[in-house]
User: Fold these one by one.
Assistant:
Number 1:
Amino acid sequence: MNTFLEDFYKTMKRIRTFEERVSELFIKGETAGSMLHLSIGEELGPTCISKAMNDNDTFTTHHRGHGIFLARGGDPNKMMAEIAGKKDGYCKGKGGSMHIADMSVGHLGANAIVGGGIPTVVGAGMSYKYFSKPSISVAFFGDGALQQGILYESMNMAALWDLPVVFCCINNQYGMGTKIDKAVAVKDFTGRAKSFGLNACSVNTLDVEEAYYKIKPIIDDARSGKPGFIEIECYRFYGHARMDKSPYRDIDEEKLYRERDPIKFAKKKLIDKNILSKDNIDKLDNEISNEMDEAISFAINASLNDTNEIFKDVYSNKNPESIKTRIKKIIGN
Ligand SMILES: Cc1ncc(C[n+]2csc(CCOP(=O)(O)OP(=O)(O)O)c2C)c(N)n1
Ligand SMILES: [Mg+2]
């Protein structure tokens, strides 16, 4: 029987293994661009939130977005090829790690500007409301964006116009080398969101099932026009980017938090509850490992784009229809 927890475990393990393989791709010198941000240690949030979303929902991510896209159904081959800058990647190799997008699967774009992907979901939410679509749109971002004005402008508009939108902060406690304590005086982020008229909750657990049941009502309410804010407290196990050895963090702190591992926790729970045996889990881990090995081979063997492709797909060919009347319909005169 395929249980909820088994699904969650599989998603988290796929994310971690994908990230480990991307790291190998980087070391082999096969990634395009010099920056690579891994989400190892942060797997719980994208996993439980994705599970609570529906197929036709959409999302944006920050620069640390591989895990989120995988949890939403991203194809590891096309993702890995994109990160390697190849023609078979999601954006024909023109986006790379920090700019993957594919609207056909609900990914409205990764954004390397801190907070940059947040207002996009407000626009998406407006369109769902206008066209009476039952979708929601979720912005995933880091704690660095909690100090950006655009978040609060977006929250205000979403609440004012009752938009089907969720703002999800993956709070890993650091923005590059700056600990959150040095960036903000009051850490009551749910309080901030509530003051704008949003539903809000904060999740600080290693138990992905518990997290799921906590965030699910926020996602469900968003679908009926009550926007929400979710804070997922976690820890990035490694440096900000692949080359960062995090000298600004205490070794004991890193050791402690790496022990607080949602994947280890889920594995133990699966065994303790007799859902899967250790052998079954090893088999599953092996399958995932093979899947990600294949993604690496796919990316390495994929071909590069022709140089004459550079200027294609840069501008939209469509004439933008006037949106004035649509906006009027939503917000009134
Ligand atoms: C507006 C803006 N300011 C500064 C940067 C440089 N920068 C890139 S990532 C980053 C830290 C972001 O931290 P956080 O939002 O917590 O995400 P995390 O890296 O922890 O996942 C900064 C400051 C940027 N990309 N955009
Ligand atoms: Mg952070």
Number 2:
Amino acid sequence: MKYLDYLTDNTLLVVPNDIKEDIILEVTEEKPLVNIKYISLENLRRSFFEYDEKAIYYLMKHYNLKYEVALIYLDNMLYLKKKSYDSEKLNNLLKLKVEVKNLIKTRKINFDNIVVYGYDLSNFDLELLKDKKITMVKDKGSYIHNCVYEFKTINEEVEFVFDKIAELIKQGIGINKIKLMGVTNSYYSILKRMGYFYNIPISIPNDINLYQTTIGKYFIDNLSDTVIDEIKEKFTNQDIINKVIDIYNKYIEYDINDIKDLIIYDLKHTKIKNKELKNSVKLISFDSKVSDDDYVFILGFNYGSIPVIYKDEDFFNDEEKKLLGLFTSQELNKLEKMKIIDKINSIKNLYITYKLQDNKEKYLISNLNEELNLKIIKDYKSSFNHSDLYNQIVLSSSLDKLIKYGVKDENLVYLNNYDLNYRKYDNKYNKIENEDLLKYLNDNLLLSYSSIDNYYKCSFRYYLNNILKVNKFEETYQTVLGSLFHYVLSKAFTDDFDFEKEYQTFLDNQKYQFNNKEIFFIEKLKNELKFIIDTIKKQYQNLNLNQALYEQKIFIDKSTSIKVTFMGIIDKILYKEEDNQTILCIIDYKTGNPILDIDNTKYGLEMQLPIYLYLSKELKFKNIKIAGFYLQKILNNEINKDNNHSYLELKENNLKLQGYTNDDLNILEKFDKTYENSQVIKSLKTTSNGFSHYSKMINDEEIGKLIEIVDEKINFARDNILNGSFDINPKRLDGENIGCLYCPFIDICYRQEKDIVDIGGDDNASVD
Ligand code: SF4
């Protein structure tokens, strides 16, 4: 009889989760009026011993256990039923079970009829359900299969499977009727690849868990009471966000730092399911139901894989399992063998294949063949009739063998009709499909000054650096030093500033390992930083701006079809609110030798200062008037000797602000008391003819235009990035290839002269 024949009202149907959906469909069709509840055997057992994170937390806290160990203890307590055992290990676990008793729930199983389908019940299970009426049902088939296909490599095995699938589809078999059974994840990448070559869609399960996603990583790295709000603000993938919120809510009553391990475990054990392709070849398990019009391939019919081999290495060993009424490893192996044989005999249209080796190991045929006695068919020859792309790859690989090792194989003859571009290399960037790019970006793009700068220098450089992130960021002594100076300067002009404390706090929080030489220099640089702070304080005395903001993070929403955010951090904003307006100047600290020219903004290059202007329009001030925007060179020891000034004066001079000043005297007077011969801004001076020739002046209209150009440049870069335009196009400005300057990807892009884009040759420095 079939399992359906045993279903009456108020039945509990115990089925594996893998096939639950199929079973529900079948039952709804065949017995729509019968009241059935579905449960897996694992969950049925759990109903008698249901624990949650409180019990895990208890064991972790009281016994200083790791999360995984506490889980193993709890999972196995279920099987202890007597008051004592002839085993110290079981009795110790029993004591723990008594301790957590109050944290455990037990549910009543109130069903008149229990039908178990697709499982073998151990004595333990039978004891658990002893007062119930239980029926165990298994499908037994009577189909006879005669052969199994052997292949030298996994590649040849999968090639055969795809040849057969292509033939079936050509014969009119619906793709959804074709199934791959019991495939392990070692086959996933080759199945994906072959699916692409043969143009046959195949639904491969996603192996990614929540912990591996950007949102999951952000969550765990920024655990705090506000992390969920931050995630909602920054990311758009609602499905992943909801999963993270569920985990967060589970632990809401705990101190968040106490339960970090629990959260990491949950993140690692929450899979991100990809959407199953509607029309595709599906992967199914040995539990899955198969009908007579299905075509099934069992791949990897190898020893150790099919059937899996259980060893005596579980938490309970075989002796203890006997005491508890559980299946021993030997019994499990017998049951697994029978299950696979029954399954094979129940499939009408079946192909069984195995390989002798893959990239890592050598393999044998499954031990099941001792019983099935299938005839081994070797030396399958592909017809090469189904995929031009795959045929060309096979031909290239045969040509490789011929050229490198002098080995001639028969594919050179079969496939000699292809005209390959063999050994010809084209470095041209091939556009990525828009849909794939957006999927890769997770519908979220973050832009900044440096990413836009990369894009305009060379879009392929941006692609490698900012999309593929090929260039791993590594902290160096220089980057740590830069961060140290920025950090201390962001605190230096606030009340209660304590230099030594802040200096040390920063160093204490560094992961970077300093060597002795670096420790020596970092100590020396303390005085340099103190000098910078003192000089800036002196400069403040000459300014009329009485308020300041430090390290201002500004986000600008640039979303189009997906969420796009432009983000920048302005090191310092000095300002004064007066007469219904805000006069402000923007300052960015720079290590090294920055470029100060705004002429190249029209090419999207060197836009750092204009970008600060652009960001400043987002500040929540009334009627902003820009007094100036500047870079301030810190950590730059180059002093040009001059007989009119002392060393100290030259050093102070080096710290003057460098950039553009608003030429409106009404604004300037309210900003720099010394503007006629500025003690704060480099080269700012007046003469009898107005401002000195060396003063860099700008007016309100030009500032407005600069902001407009920056906006256009960001929009242009954003649209091209989202469109997947990443051509190799380094810019050569007035004869100098600035695109490739310091680019780490020269070995990847194979840049040619024809790729270089010449710009410049225009002396007009206006921003029109
Ligand atoms: S080396 Fe030049 S051409 Fe190549 S990626 Fe870098 S910037 Fe582009």
